[in-house]
């Protein structure tokens, strides 16, 4: 039983660590909604901010269509942890 408890604690710490590496974005809520539609960010009601879904350690590899859409929004790709394939 203690092993299960320890594993649960380790999993919780791992989740919190990954979450803390995600950037809080200072962007318009409409842009956040557009990024959410692309699966790249979400609006966190608890902190009232837009948060990226990807981390610098595990960025999103976007296709050219997604990259073009993001560029039209004038969002910094590094800020949202997106890598565009050329």
Averaged pLDDT, please?
81
Major sheet = 3 strands, antiparallel
The helicity comes to 40-55%
Structural class: alpha+beta
| CA distance, first residue to last residue | 50 Å
- Strand tally, please? 5
Low-confidence stretches: 15-20
Order of helices and strands: HEHEEEHE
Strand order of the largest sheet: 1-3-2
What's the gyration radius in Å?
A: 15 Å
Described by the principal axes of the CA atoms, the overall outline is globular
Fraction in beta strands: 15-25%
Oligomer: single chain
- Give the tally of structural domains: 1
Total DSSP helices = 3
Fold topology:
Elements lengths: L1 H19 L3 E2 L3 H9 L3 E4 L4 E4 L7 E3 L1 H10 L8 E3 L2
Parallel strand pairs: 4-5
Antiparallel strand pairs: 1-3, 2-3
Polypeptide structure, described:
- This protein is an alpha+beta fold and 86 residues long.
- It has one domain (2-84).
- Helices cover 44% and strands 19% of the residues.
- It is built from three helices and five strands.
- It has helices at 2-20, 29-37, 64-73, and strands at 24-25, 41-44, 49-52, 60-62, 82-84.
- It has a three-stranded antiparallel β-sheet, with helices on one face.
- Helix 3 (64-73) links the parallel strand 4 and strand 5 (82-84).
- The longest helix has 19 residues, at 2-20.
- It starts with a helix and ends with a strand.
Condensed summary:
The chain has 86 residues and is α+β, with helices and mostly antiparallel strands. Helices cover 44% and strands 19% of the residues. The strands form two sheets. A three-stranded antiparallel beta sheet has the order 1-3-2, with helices on one face. Strands 4-5 form a two-stranded parallel ribbon.
């Amino acid at each position: 039983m203690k092993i299960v408890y320890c594993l649960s604690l380790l999993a919780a710490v791992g989740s919190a660590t990954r979450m803390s590496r995600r950037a809080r974005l200072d962007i318009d809520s409409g842009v956040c909604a557009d990024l959410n539609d692309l699966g790249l960010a979400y609006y966190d009601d608890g902190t009232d901010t837009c948060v990226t879904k990807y981390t610098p350690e595990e960025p999103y590899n976007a296709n050219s269509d997604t990259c073009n859409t993001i560029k039209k929004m004038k969002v910094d790709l590094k800020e949202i942890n997106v890598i565009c394939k050329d």
